[in-house]
Design brief:
Layout (H helix, E strand, L loop, with lengths): L2 H29 L2 H17 L1 H6 L3 H17 L32 H9 L3 H12 L4 H8 L3 H16 L2 H9 L4
Helix pairs in contact: 1-2, 1-4, 2-4, 4-7, 6-7, 6-8, 7-8
Length: 179
């Protein structure tokens, strides 16, 4: 293997190891299942590795990788627009181990939050995850989703409204000490 190729492989490996937890968290929130999240991240990284020279030279490689992940996820679910991502029960949900900086971990009932999030349609879930969990700006979320800022605003607002209307989640917020 040439020195340039070896250097790119090492750069990719460093990127992958450093970003794996965040990519897994995003994928988990998009898919609602640990195994599906792992598959999504692995598929994303396979595609990114092939064009790592271009990706690594990008201003924001992580944004590029996130866009690939969103596209792969959306493509998988495009044919089933009416189907929700969530399993019929939460037995298939494997809850991630939160790091200390994860704001989601501060929720009193993580299961209720993830179950409620899993009930959102694909585009609303993507908008909510990118805007509120990944803390992207509306412009960054629009770029990641491949849509307009207005579409992100609309989907995020509808998603948040649906989350607020779920009784189990509202009960967690009001009775969980977060009034």
């Amino acid at each position: 293997m040439g020195d340039g190729k070896r250097a790119r492989s090492e750069e990719f490996q460093s990127f992958m190891v450093g970003r794996w937890p965040r990519l897994m968290r995003t994928a988990f929130l998009l898919t609602g299942e640990q195994h599906a999240a792992e598959d999504l991240v692995q598929s994303t990284l396979e595609r990114v590795y092939v064009s790592w020279r271009k990706v690594g030279a990008a201003d924001e490689p992580e944004a590029y990788v996130r866009r690939v992940m969103i596209n792969l996820h959306a493509r998988k679910h495009r044919r089933r627009l009416k189907e929700f991502l969530a399993p019929k029960d939460d037995s298939g949900l494997m809850h991630e181990v939160a790091d200390t900086g994860d704001r989601i971990a501060q929720a009193d009932d993580r299961r209720a939050l993830l179950t409620a999030l899993a009930q959102l349609p694909v585009r609303q879930r993507e908008a909510v995850v990118l805007r509120y969990w990944e803390d992207l700006t509306e412009t960054q979320a629009a770029e990641a989703m491949g849509c307009s800022v207005g579409t992100v605003k609309s989907n995020a607002a509808k998603g948040i409204a649906k989350l607020r209307a779920i009784p189990a989640l509202a009960e967690t917020v009001t009775h969980g000490g977060r009034k």
